[in-house]
Design brief:
Length: about 110
């Protein structure tokens, strides 16, 4: 399942291909090029270089997608903030949040 942020599966980013399910193992697939002793090294090197190039591209796309997603989340968060910060004055009543107390919210708090 592709993740929304990176637009790929973690498996694809690690191995450079989609995962093969056990059901897919039942279907016989054939190589496009037969591998023989003569071209084994060449085929292996070609696959390795292709994989390295593919993975680098996928990693870069994932990093770009993460950057875009973070910018989008920051923009959404910043839009929810008030334009001006709230300024408290002496004698203002505020709600006190106590993390260690049994009752977290103890009601009105007079900051004197």
């Amino acid at each position: 399942m592709k993740q929304d942020t990176i637009q790929a599966t973690p498996f694809e980013l690690v191995y450079g291909r989609t995962a093969t399910l056990p059901v897919e193992m039942e279907v016989t697939t054939y190589l496009t090029e037969p591998i023989t002793e003569d071209n084994f090294q060449e085929t292996l090197l070609k696959r390795t270089y292709d994989l390295m190039e593919t993975l680098e591209n996928k990693w870069q796309r994932a990093a770009d997608n993460i950057q875009k997603s973070q910018e989008k989340q920051k923009k959404r968060h910043d839009n929810q903030l008030p334009d001006k910060p709230v300024k408290f004055k002496i004698e203002d009543k505020v709600l006190l949040h106590r993390t260690k107390a049994k009752k977290q919210w103890s009601g009105k708090f007079d900051p004197k």
